[in-house]
Amino acid sequence: MKFLKSLGLGVLSAGLLFGVATNVKAEAIYRLYNENDGAHFYTGNRVEKTMLMDAGWRYEGRAWKAADGGQPIYRLYNPNSGEHHFTTGVYERNWLMTKGWRYESISGYSMTKDTGAAVYRLFNPNESGAGSHHYTLNGNERNQLVSLGWRDEGVAFYQEPIFIPQPVILDISGWQSPSKINYDELASDVDGVIVRVQHGTEKQNIENGAQYLSGEDKAYQTHIREFQKRGIPVAVYAFVMGDSVSEMKREATLFYQRAQGFQPTFWWGDFEKNTMTTGTMREGAEAFRSQLKALGAKKVGAYIANHLYAQFNLDVDQFDAIWIPTYGIYNNGLFDPNEVKSYPYATKNYDMHQYTSKGELAGYTGNLDLSRLVHPEDFSYLFG
């Protein structure tokens, strides 16, 4: 369904809002939830999504990708209850109009059974207002709602499914050159971005296409500005290379000085190499974390190499979140929840999982690191 773009805000039944038709390619439809009235809200507009989150709606990720064309989906409005209703049935549309519903527009389009995935419509008989209908591509969610007393009303329409975990979390560095990125397209495919700010310091004597000799990432300022001005929340990370407690503190200080002006949502230390020659990685990581906190960073997390998790023995309880990378058997850009080797094995105590280094998103031709949240509802904590 092309859930068409609009900047007007309103509380609508089933949480659906569509505006004036625009000639754009198929786009992701974002799903949000209002805990006050139980309504879900679906929109293809990123600005609107951000405004709703600021107003207290909980972001639940992408629902599906809108279809470019096909069978019309009709939108009707009930002036008595404030509810909106969506149907592909001309008969149902006309019947509702005889009952006082107001026909508003064609809100989008449905694919066919052969080309799209079913979006199910459910009805809550205990709710007569804004939250009475729900639409989902997820068969398990449908079954759960039915078990709770919702009435299954069958397939509402067909849309293009999305096969990567939602919300979409991207981490990026100077290796992804801004000159090769269409930020408009890439921003439309991600929900949160974690930008590398530095890789060690001048002590490592490393300079390449992605970083200066000082360790400062060559593209971090551009990446942050371009995503932030498109409404994408940005966190930051530093690849940590300190060889002593004092060097760990110095790296944290440089990291903070470079990034604090951008007001990132979260600060991450990337611990992938045992660089400590004086002291232990546990001591070094704690020095890095505590220095960031002392400087003013509110939330500090640790990205820990899965195969080195036990060896590093970091004091993970001191960090505000843990991020672990494992890419499964195929590392094909997707996450298979049924494949045991898709999951980190070193610990079950993690909040975010980098599941591929070969992700593909619109706006960049090349491999991308993508991560998933263990609990999608933590998005607001990590990126709010």
What's the short story on this structure?
Helix content is 21%, strand content 28%. It is built from 9 helices and 17 strands. One of its GO terms (biological process) is cell wall macromolecule catabolic process.
The fourth-level CATH homologous superfamily of the largest domain is Glycosidases
Indicate the structural class: alpha/beta
What is the count of distinct domains? 2
Low-confidence stretches: 1-26
CATH arch. level architecture of the largest domain:
Alpha-Beta Barrel
CATH topology of the largest domain: TIM Barrel
Largest sheet: 8 strands, mixed, barrel
Lateral strand order in the biggest sheet: 10-11-12-13-14-15-16-17
Number of strands: 17
Estimated helix fraction: 10-25%
The first-level CATH class name of the largest domain: Alpha Beta
Element-level helix/strand string: EEHEEEHEEEHEEHEHEHEHEHEEEH
Q: Give the number of helices.
A: 9
Calculate the mean pLDDT score and round it.
88
Overall form: elongated
How much of the polypeptide forms β-strand, as a percent range? 25-35%
* Backbone CA Rg: 23 Å
C-alpha termini separation: 29 Å
Structure, explained:
The chain folds into 2 domains: 147 residues, no CATH class; 215 residues, TIM Barrel (Alpha-Beta Barrel), CATH 3.20.20. The N terminus is likely disordered. The protein has 9 helices and 17 strands. By secondary structure, the protein is of the alpha/beta class. The radius of gyration is 23 Å and the shape is elongated. Helix 6 packs parallel to helix 7. It has an 8-stranded mixed β-barrel. A 3-stranded antiparallel beta sheet has the order 2-1-3, with helices on one face. The chain has a 3-stranded antiparallel beta sheet with strand order 5-4-6.
